[in-house]
Amino acid sequence: MHIIKKLKTPLYLFMFIALLISCNTKNKSDNSTVKEETKVAKKILFVVTSHSKKGDTGEKTGYYLGEVSHPWDVLHSAGYDIDFVSPQGGKAPVDAFDMTDAINKKFWDNNTYRNKIENTKKPSEVNPEDYVAIHYAGGHGAMWDFANNTEIAEIAQQIYENNGVISAVCHGPAGLVNIKLSNGKYLVDGKKVNAFTNEEEVKVKLEDVVPFLLEDQLRARGAIFEKSAPFNKHVVTDQRLVTGQNPQSAHSVGKATLNELQKLAKNTK
To answer: Were both Cys, which of 44, 113, 142, 250 would link to 70 (CB 3.0–4.6 Å)?
Structure first.
């Protein structure tokens, strides 16, 4: 009996040590999973246009730089990683290239993000599950290639229905007009929104150049359209949808989007 006890003691000790190692390994694995989930949950997708011409005018266009840089500055400073997608992927054409705007310069001088926006993802390369929000930047180019892009509309629908946030500014809401939810209703139906107004389009003398008037189309989809006087800042938030009227609203759209994300984060704790 004494010999058996001697044999059992080292056996129990070995089993105890093995159990401790197993638990420690599991905890490390769990912590690694949590860190990875946290990292993924901090990503936002920015949508920019691939279109570079204003109809038949011969004038160049693209995404409006300030409508990327100002929301980017707010959200990136808050710890979010930003990816870029465009209808065609690759280098996106830029408009309103104003380096006297300090935030524009900050964005453009950031090698990581300069590389990202000059090598945008194709819609087929995007996994909606990776993102907590999607932001549609404006620029007149968006009026030609946002509304009918079903791939990006589906990405936005999935992000939104996964309790994410959708934001858009100026002509960016062109990407919202054909987004349908799983219940068959348009995303904007019954929600307060705004965008580049009819009056603003007339003032820049492009009302007969753009393929449709954005304000009219959003109203036709059931949106409750709100607006201020031309080129005044105006931002509307309704049910995780943030929209801004014009370039002057871009920074505030970023702040409103961040506020929505922070509220969601509190509610999930």
So the answer is: 250
